[in-house]
Design a protein that fits this description.
Blueprint: E1 2-7, E2 10-13, E3 18-26, E4 33-39, E5 46-51, E6 58-60, E7 68-73, E8 78-83, E9 92-99, E10 115-116, E11 120-125
Parallel strand pairs: 2-11
Antiparallel strand pairs: 1-3, 3-8, 4-5, 4-9, 5-6, 7-8, 9-10, 9-11
C-alpha cells in the first residue's frame, strides 16, 4: 500500500485560493489513480476530483468544475489540488486517496480507493 500525507489546508475568505498537496510514499506512485474527496460536518464523504496515472485525464465533480484543478508530479510522488474562488460550502476536511482501479470519466466512490491520507481541514469564511 501507499502512504499519503496531505498538507496545505487552512482558513481563507470566500473568493480566495488554497493549494493542497498530497505526498505519497511506498509503492510506485505512478501506478495509482489519485483522487481528492471531502467531508463536511454531518455529511457523507463526497468525491471531488480524480486524475489518471499519467495525469492526462481528470474527472471533476460538478460542484468544483471550473474552480478546482488537480495535477500530479510523478517524479515527486505528489498530487496537488489548486482551489480557486472558494465558497463557504467548500468547507470540509479534504482527503487524498490512491486506487489501483481503472480510470474512467464516471464519478468515483470512496470504495474505489484503498489508501487514504489523514485529511486536512479547509475552512472558507463568508
Amino acid at each position: 500500500q501507499v502512504q499519503l500525507v496531505e498538507s496545505g489546508g487552512g482558513l481563507v475568505q470566500a473568493g480566495g485560493s488554497l493549494r493542497l498537496s498530497c505526498a505519497a510514499s511506498g509503492r510506485t506512485f505512478s501506478t495509482y489513480v489519485m483522487g481528492w474527496f471531502r467531508q463536511a460536518p454531518g455529511k457523507e464523504r463526497e468525491f471531488v476530483v480524480a486524475i489518471s496515472r499519467s495525469g492526462a485525464s481528470r474527472n471533476y465533480a460538478d460542484s468544483v468544475k471550473g474552480r478546482f484543478t488537480i495535477s500530479r508530479d510523478n517524479a515527486k510522488n505528489t498530487v496537488y489540488l489548486q482551489m480557486n474562488s472558494l465558497k463557504p460550502e467548500d468547507t470540509a476536511v479534504y482527503y487524498c486517496a490512491a486506487g489501483s482501479i481503472g480510470y474512467s470519466s464516471r464519478p468515483f466512490s470512496s470504495g474505489d480507493f484503498a489508501s487514504w491520507g489523514q485529511g486536512t481541514q479547509v475552512t472558507v469564511s463568508s
